Amino acid sequence: MYLVHARLRMPAGGGVPPGLAEMIRAHAREADALEHVSVHGEESGEVTVGVFSLATELAEAEERAADLLVRAVDLEPQLAGSAVLSVGAALVPGPWWDFD
Length: 100
Hints:
Blueprint: E1 2-9, H1 20-26, E2 34-41, E3 46-53, H2 58-75, E4 83-91
Antiparallel strand pairs: 1-3, 1-4, 2-3
C-alpha cells in the first residue's frame, strides 16, 4: 500500500469544503486502486490530501492519485478555482516488514 500526499490550493478565503474526502472518493474509478482518502486543512489555505492506494508500484500510485485529484478538481463545482500543487508517495510500513 502507498500513501500519496497531495497539496491542493483552495480559492482565497474558501477554506476546506465540507465533505472534501467524499467528493474525491466520488470521482474514483476502479483503476484508481483507491483504499482511503484523508483531508487536513492548513492555515495557509492549502489542503493536504492523503490518498491510500492499493497500486502495485510507487509511480503507478502517484499517477493514479494525481489523475483522481485533477479529475475531482475539474468536475466538482465546489472545487472551482482550486489547483493540485504537488503529488508524492511513500511506502506505508506494515507487518510484512521485518522491523525490530
